[in-house]
Amino acid sequence: MDLALLSALNSERAARRACVLVTDTAAGQQRLVKGVDIATDPMAEVLEAALRSGKSGTVEADGKTWFLTVQAPPVRLFVIGAVHVSQALAPMARTAGFDMTVIDPRTAFATPERFADVKLIAEWPQDVLPGLKLDRYTGVACFTHDPKIDDPALEEALAADCFYIGALGSRKTHGRRVERLHAKGFTPEQTARIHAPIGMDIGAVSPAEIAVSVLAEIILSLRKKPLRVDTVKAQENAGAKAGEAA
Amino acid sequence: MLATDEDILAKAEEWRKTGKGVAIATVTETWGSAPRPVGSHLVIDEDGHFLGSVSGGCVEGEVVTEAVDVIGDGKARTLEFGVADEAAWKVGLSCGGRIKVFVEKVN
């Protein structure tokens, strides 16, 4: 690999841009395809599929065998609320490889003593999230249970199409939350993306157990859900088209 | 803190820029219960220092040895390992997987 190519690969990663390194392992030749250039690449179809799956692997194209090194940006997690569940979640998220930051404007909660070794921002979500440039490789979990703090974060997350958006609260609380978001112009398709009540239903009771259920839901959204959603959407579209024809 | 694949490639760039010979090993195919997924990296410098992993630790030694040769002759090569072979068994890993590793020099 040329050093220039390696440098380009690393700078794409640092800028949180997806790219694929295409290697002819037999000849040892390589090229880097940036995310924005994939659509116009001769190998567009296989590259897009590889990027969607987020997995590196061997593909056959043009009668050759290629190895694709898929570089999807590292996943970030923004947790709104410096609460007990967030304290339990922080070490688990770190172990699982997520880059987690806690945001809470309430300085009594957001203290370094409560969150040693955790990135902590004692500001309002609406003040800091725009500068943090949320994207598809970002997850947002809201734990404050306070609409003044959670809602602005949910609005940012929905607008950025984050891969995971979750919010603590009962179905009733969530119903009112969804109404507020619809009043702000978000569509039912968008608000349906919010996981609420938050976490997989494993009967979690303690803060640590709730943290496990939320982390499991985040991993599910990252690794499996997008594919399932795509499949369901494809089937729905096929069904709708069949309906139009009839 | 565990080194992630991005840290590992950044380290390869850093090492090369200091003038050291560097090779990158990448898992390109796995069969069975291989311990590290396709795309995992191990980077090696000319002195045999390495970062990352291509297996649970059972074939790293051989990959590092080969990588030092790759740094020497500049020729990329693909290595295949049956993780359940005798060498792996000796160091206590008998998962039964097989892996293919592409080793290339950073020019």
Proportion in β-strands of chain A? 15-25%
| Alpha-carbon Rg of chain A, integer | 21 Å
Beta content of chain B? 25-35%
* Shape, principal axes of CA atoms of chain A: elongated
Number of domains of chain A: 2
Q: What's the helix and strand layout?
A:
The complex is a heterodimer of chains A (246) and B (107).
Chain A (H helix, E strand, L loop, with lengths): L2 H12 L4 E6 L4 E6 L9 H10 L3 E5 L2 E8 L4 E5 L3 H12 L3 E5 L15 E3 L3 H8 L5 E5 L4 H13 L4 E4 L3 H13 L4 H4 L2 E2 L11 H17 L1 H21 L1
Parallel strand pairs in A: 5-6, 5-8, 6-7, 8-9, 9-10
Antiparallel strand pairs in A: 1-2, 1-4, 3-4
Helix pairs in contact in A: 3-8, 4-5
Chain B lengths: L4 H13 L4 E10 L9 E5 L4 E3 L7 H14 L3 E6 L3 H5 L7 E8 L2
Antiparallel strand pairs in B: 1-2, 1-5, 2-3, 4-5
What is the compact description of this entry?
The complex is a heterodimer of chains A (246) and B (107). Chain A is α/β, with parallel strands linked by helices.
Question: What would you say this structure looks like, in words?
Answer:
The complex is a heterodimer of chains A (246) and B (107). Chain A has 246 residues and is of the alpha/beta class. Chain A folds into two domains: 3-71, no CATH class; 76-222, NAD(P)-binding Rossmann-like Domain (Rossmann fold, 3-Layer(aba) Sandwich). Chain A is built from nine helices and ten strands. Chain A has helices at 3-14, 44-53, 84-95, 125-132, 147-159, 171-183, 188-191, 207-223, 225-245, and strands at 19-24, 29-34, 57-61, 64-71, 76-80, 99-103, 119-121, 138-142, 164-167, 194-195. In chain A, strands 7-6-5-8-9-10 form a six-stranded parallel sheet, sandwiched between helices. In chain A, helix 4 runs parallel beside helix 5 (147-159). The radius of gyration of chain A is 21 Å and the shape is elongated. Chain A starts with a helix and ends with a helix. With 107 residues, chain B is an alpha+beta fold. Chain B has one domain. Chain B contains three helices and five strands; from the N terminus they run αβββαβαβ. Chain B has helices spanning 5-17, 60-73, 86-90; strands at residues 22-31, 41-45, 50-52, 77-82, 98-105. In chain B, strands 3-2-1-5-4 form a five-stranded antiparallel sheet. In chain B, a hairpin with a 4-residue loop joins strand 2 and strand 3. The radius of gyration of chain B is 13 Å and the shape is globular. At the A-B interface, helix 1 and strand 4 of A face helix 1, strand 1 and strand 5 of B.
